[in-house]
Amino acid sequence: MQTGYNNNNKTFLEWWWFFCSLILITFICWTLDVFEAIWIADKTKLSFIILSLFTVMSLYCGRQAWVLSKIQKQNLPLDSSFKSRYEFGWFASEICLTLGLIGTVSGFILMLYGVFADLNVNDTDSVQQSLRNMSLGMSTALYTTLVGLISGLVLKLEYFRLEVHFDNYVKLKANETRTI
């Protein structure tokens, strides 16, 4: 009779399914020129720093899911430091949110600077240029906020699922040691 947690790589496969869904969403956004619109609208380019951090940490989550799947499949005891390996993911999700908020503030600064720099209220061209500058600052603020919120949320979902699998395995191993 075999005891243990034999889930046939369920932890990793769950992450892989989620990651493939993200690849599909990325492809759709690419074909709809969403990334180009963000590149043009975000003057700080913080959105792409956030997306880069998101990609790296999502792949890191996949690596940790793979390692946990191997441990579960072989029914090995867990190293006490294993859980701390994916605390980086929780931290990175907060960094994504923080960078999004920094982009919001930067966008508002760009917006306000664009309004009052060289504004001549008697000249309609000057007013139109100020409104264009305002819209650029506002688009920077909104895009960085949106990218930061979505990236942070998705990272939290990935690392939450990893933590659930980890906790379930720890409980199973604790029950095994009690029954022995």
Write structural notes for this entry:
With 180 residues, this protein is mostly helical. The protein has one domain. It is built from six helices and no strands. The protein has helices spanning 10-31, 34-41, 46-73, 82-85, 87-116, 124-179. Helix 1 runs antiparallel to helix 3, helix 3 runs parallel beside helix 6 (124-179) and helix 5 packs antiparallel against helix 6 (124-179). The chain is elongated. The protein starts with 9 loop residues before the first helix and ends with a helix. Mean pLDDT is 87; it is low at 1-5.
In short:
This protein has helices at 10-31, 34-41, 46-73, 82-85, 87-116, 124-179. By secondary structure, the chain is mainly alpha-helical. It has one domain (10-179).
Would you identify the regions where 5 or more consecutive residues have pLDDT less than 50? 1-5
| Radius of gyration using CA atoms only | 23 Å
Distance between the termini: 14 Å
| Distinct helical segment count | 6
Strand content: under 5%
> What shape does the CA trace take?
elongated
Overall mean pLDDT score? 87
The SSE string, one letter per element, is HHHHHH
Task: Count the beta strands.
Answer: 0
Number of domains: 1
Q: Which structural class best describes the helix and strand composition?
A: mainly alpha
What's the layout of helices and strands?
Elements: H1 10-31, H2 34-41, H3 46-73, H4 82-85, H5 87-116, H6 124-179
Helix pairs in contact: 1-3, 3-5, 3-6, 5-6
